[in-house]
Amino acid sequence: MMDGARRLRSLLAEGRLIVAPGATDAFTARLIESLGFPAIYLGGNAIGLHLAAGQPLVTLTETVDCARQVLGAIEAPLIVDAGAGFGEPAHTHRAVRELERAGIAAIHIDDQPYPKRARYHVGQGGLAPMDEVAGKLKIACEARRSKDFLIFARTDALRVTGSLDETIARCRAYVAAGVDGLMVLDLAPADAAAVRQAVPGVPLAWFVSPAMPAPPLTELAAAGFRLALYPFNTVAAIAEAVTNTWTALRDSGEIPQSPALLSHLRGSVQELIGMRTYWDIEARTVAAPAKETKTS
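Structure (tokenized):
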């Protein structure tokens, strides 16, 4: 079987839009894969929320551990958020080696300063110097052992500066450093053509952002995006469903789930995680418990 990195490269070569919904853990990744999506995304924010720690505080070790758990549950290529590379160029070199060794298909490295600031998530993000980021990305590309392992550069320049010219300058510098693709935070489909013209032939990834509504897939494909990542939607769905379920029980004393629903989902999720294999093994290898006989 072709490994994840080669499969993702092959999908990109086909020229169609690849949709990669975001997972938070092995279970949600398996669920997403079962719906037929060709790739899975594991974002830093999802990892941070999964750990109840927050993205800026997530470590390389935690990222690799979470990725390995997800990879153990899926066959689809996994794309992982590598933050700002977890440090200076030497640290980024080690990070790339560890992430590649885990079996990840692709990572993206952003141009935020490191260490990441907690206030980034309240709209106070910043940018590291362009030359510094380009140097880090060059080291990251040199660190990978397989030519198939994909490294995308993510720039937050459009959000931080509001300047498309500044954003394009950074895109050009990052492509010159050797990255395989680009991700521009808050890039609208209408502005994608300018970026694609500045760096022709480089795959462009779209990244859902709370700052703007998610366009239809047809619009993203028409704008020339090759990859669509959805980092927060699964987290939002979980938070909404869990909150609604237990709020109802707290306030009314009743849980808004029928026995029929619970029975159906209990069976379907057991099938989803592969329990059928173990049921069949036990049916062949473990004797059924003896029935009790009544005595008078």
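The two ends are 62 Å apart (CA to CA). The first helix runs from residue 4 to 13.
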